[in-house]
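1st attempt posting a full record on here, be nice pls
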Amino acid sequence: MAYLDVLYALNGEVLPGKSGWLAGARRLTAAPLGWEEDLTKLTLADLALVPSLWERLAQGLYDPVVNPVPAKEISLNARDVLIHTDGGCIGNPGPGAWAFLIRSGGERWEGSGGEDLTTNNKMELTAVIKSLEAVGELPNRPQRIEIRTDSQYVKNGITTWIRSWLANGWKTASKGPVKNQDLWERLHLLNQEFHPHWTWVKGHAGNEDNEACDQLVQKTIRQRSSSVKRP
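the predicted structure (as tokens):
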């Protein structure tokens, strides 16, 4: 069940702090154990803190796909595209980089870029934006696109949170401005154009293409340069 569905159901039926709230949440979601601590905090929280706690809680709604089918074992035709992305920086904010690796029809290519002063989240967003822009340059429009990211911020943001941001004029649940709005707006347009399937993979868990993106990010941070390699 989506985060917004849970939020509506709980706020519509039971106020935070009331008995039965925790049990209701458990019934509404297939929650991982990591949810328990934040969920308990939320039931005991002052009402003014609830919006920000809800946003933290939403990050635990989706279990990562720890071991998806390895990219090298997937048979992709020329109209299928599999994308891995990563982004990071040193210092947060600090020097950072983004990277993507795209596979399609037996071919693979990668792209990367860096900025002198940025954040992890900006680089994660930029990575998926640049990857979809690269897909848009392919001679034939893909039929199926899957994006694998290890960023819950990106995956949850584009699949769930953005609906409320758009409805609320780019305001968060706590009524503050959405950070990185310009990047989210660009990604939203690309998401509407290509309709990719979004998969969250756990970082540093042996996923070959995810690890390759991470290495490219680290290399690009060191080099502070931009490059794109195509087949």
